Each structure stands twice: as structure tokens, then as C-alpha cells.
Amino acid sequence: MPVYAYKGVTQAGRAAKGTVDADNPRTARDKLRKQGVFLTDLAESSGSRARSQADRGGAAPGRFSFSLASLRRISTLELALATRQLATLVGAGIPLVEALGALTEQVESTRLKSVIGTARDRVNQGASLADALAESGVFGDLFVSMVRAGEASGALEQVLARLADYQEGQVRLQNRVMSIVLYPLMMLGFSVMVIALLVVVVLPQITQLLESLNRPLPFSTRMVIGLSEFVRTWWLALLIGLAAALLGLRAAIRTERGRVRWDAFRLRVPVLGKVVRLLAISRFARTLSTLLAGGIPIVRAMGISRLVANNAVIGAAVERAAESLTEGASLAGPLRASGEFPPLVIHMVDVGERSGELEPMLAKIAESYDEQVESSVTRLTALLEPLLILVMVGIVIVIILSVLLPMLELTGSIQ
Question: Which residues contact 253 (CB under 8 A, 6 or more apart)?
Fold first, then answer.
């Protein structure tokens, strides 16, 4: 449904502006008139126009319209802020339709504004909030299932608050990890640029001087010169080959067998494999804890959690555990038999099951593993920084010595 931006004056004489969802401008004017707003300006937003044209199968006749805002992915932080605001509005006793309308005016993302506006209209027509959010395709199975359970139990405010806490926790973890790895990535990029500059720009000029000496060059010098010429001649083919390899790897990972092999390889990589495992288990534990706190049945909650773990090997172990639960087994037993979960996780899950406190135990596992992920990444980057410096300095020294060695030999022969 199109979203219209409007400006007008209320019955009290105050200026008013915002957005409204309607099938056409006339319907928008009627809705605003009923709300006591006298329009001075009404225009369809660009993001809504692009989305509406895409839904119809193309752009407006005779012109091409494109909006980056309508294609931009809605970030987890934007969803977390919107969820927190909706929980506050619902907790204040505002009817759900009015709360969604107020939320539409508060969010800044054009796409999210349109999605919430459409969900508000569906709720106004009698649909549940969970069904309206599911139809948008923006909210995942975790979010929709939690909202559905909150509506059924009459605890929508608490469920939305838990969802906001969960999303904010994911954003904090991502930001911490990114802030840690950003500096090594910048160093790596700078190192590649320096080496490329030496190989592509500096070496060709020195090569002409060395060849003019008409003297046999050392093996190291010939190797560096040959590598420089190869890169300058075949750089385009190398880039195409690298892009093709990456696309092929991506296509293989999208297959079920390829994804299992790739995730198993990631878990076996020295040092990095431990971080990947900790992160996957942390996501699984936090998601399962959030779902159980929201009243989702444990088998259904595990089905969602294994997808959020984002690792096919861990997910397969969780799936087998869920199947065992339907047969009357405990959760800790199948997880122990899989061999993919550390003894600490198995022990805490076992204690949580026997004490009836599984949800808080899972939350403690997630908190502990989040801290371990952060500390592991911190130690890893602390080792990578000097390693990158040594590698860059070593390559530069090899290039410089390879160039200077023939000149030193020439100087010695002249003396």
C-alpha cells in the first residue's frame, strides 16, 4: 500500500505533518480529514512509489524509477528500536492499531515505515499482529512465533520487550566483534595497497635500470621481476578468476551438502574454529532461552533456534535432540551424544532440566559464551596485528633486497 507524506493544520490551528497509508490520494485525504487534519500538501513518498511499482511488475510508463531506500536491508538495530517503541506504546495501554500508527510516524526507515503501516492496516481489518508481520517477509520466524505466543497469552508487552532485549544483545555483540577486527582489516588492506604499489609502479621502473646493466641477475631478483610482470599482465584475469572462485564457493555453500561441509570445515579450522563454535552455541542458547521465556513449546523453539545458530553441523545436532525430545528423552543426552557441545553446556542444560530452570540456564550459557567470543577475538586480533606487520615488512624487505642486490654486486665489481 502506498505511503503518503502530508503537511496540514489541525482543528486547533497547529501545524501537523507525517505519513499516512492509503490506496490513493483521495482515500488519504479522507482519512486525514476524519482525524481532524486539513491538508496543505500531500505527496507519495519515493520509497513507497518504487515499492508499489515493483509490486505491479515495473516502473511507471515512460520513465524509470529507482530508490535505494526501498531496497536497503532493514538492520537489526532498526528492528530493535521499533520493537522497543512498540512495547512501550502497548505497555502504556494504547490500542494496538493506534500504537502501530504512532510507530509508523516514529521510525525513520522508509521501508520499515511502509511495512509497519501495512501491518497496521491488516490488524485494523481483523488480522492478528503475528499474521500481519509474517506477511511482510521482513520479520523472521523467531519474531513472528514470539509475537503469536504473546498475543495468545495476553503478554504482548513482555514478549516485545524480550524481543527488543534479544535484538539489542545481538547488535551489541556484533558491534563489539566488528570494533575488534576493524583495525586488523584496515592494516591488511593498507599492506595489500603498499605491496601492490611496489609491484605495479616501483618495480617496473627499477627493472628497466637492472636490465640495462647487461649482467646476469640473481634468482631472487628474477623471481620478483617475473612476479611483477605476471601481475601487471594478467591482473584482469586474476580478478576474474578470484571472482569466479568466490561465486563458485558461494553457489556450493547454498546447497545442503556444500553448506554442511563448509560449516564442518569452519569448525575444524585451528583457533578460528573455536570462535565459530562459541558464537553458534551462544546464538542457539540465547534464542532458545528467549523463545522458552515467551511461551513457545520447546520442540518448536529448538526448530527455530537451530536456524538462528547459522551452522549446519550445530543445527543438525539440535534437530536430532529435538527429535529425541518428542520420544521422551532429555535434552542434555542427545546434545552430549552429538559431540558438538562442550561439557559445560551439557552440564548446565542437565541441571536446568532437573531443576526446572532451563531458560535462565540457557541465558547464562549465552552470556558466558558471548564474553568468551569477545575475549577470543580480542586475543586473536592481538596476535594478528604483529603477524600482519611482520608479513608486510618481510615482503617489502624481500623486494628491496632483490632490487639492491644486483646494484651492490655492480658497485663491488667497479671497485
Answer: 259, 262
pLDDT at 407 over 80: no
Note the pLDDT tens digit of each residue in 145-155.
Answer: 878 878 877 77
Report pTM: 0.63
DSSP secondary structure of 102-130: HHHHH---HHHHHHHHHHHHHHHTT--HH
C-alpha–C-alpha distance, residues 51 and 46, integer Å: 9
Instruction: Give the C-alpha distances (Å, rounded to integers) separating 365 from 21, 159, 329.
Output: 44, 21, 21
E strand residue ranges, 268-391? none
**Assigned C-alpha cell, 343:** 561439557
Question: What confidence tens digit (pLDDT) does each residue in 182-235 have?
Answer: 777 787 788 778 777 777 777 777 777 766 767 677 777 777 778 778 877 888
d(CA 289, CA 366): 9
Can you tell me the distance from the alpha carbon of 224 to that of 202, in angstroms, rounded to the nearest whole number?
12
**Which three cell numbers, joined as nine digits, stand for 124?**
485494523
Q: Report phi then psi at 92, rounded to 5.
A: -80, 0
Helix 156-197 with 141-153: angle, nearest 10 deg = 170
- 3-state secondary structure at position 202: helix
Comparing CA positions, the residue from 368, 381, 389, 370 lying closest to residue 180 is 381
Scan for cell 494504547, then name that residue. Answer: 94
C-alpha angle 180-183-189 in degrees, rounded to nearest 5: 135
Domain with CATH 1.20.81.30 in the chain: 76-168, 272-373
* Core vs surface per residue 391-402: b (16+ CB within 10 A) or e: ebeeeeeebeeb
Rg (the chain; Cα; Å):
30
CATH superfamily of 272-373: Type II secretion system (T2SS), domain F (1.20.81.30)
**Amino acid present at 10:** T
| Residue whose entry in the numeric block shows the C-alpha cell 527455530 | 304
* Cβ proximity of 51 and 114 under 8 Å: yes
CA 62 to chain centre: 37
Grid cell at residue 6:
502530508
CATH code of domain 76-168: 1.20.81.30
Q: What element of type H or E holds 44?
A: strand 37-44
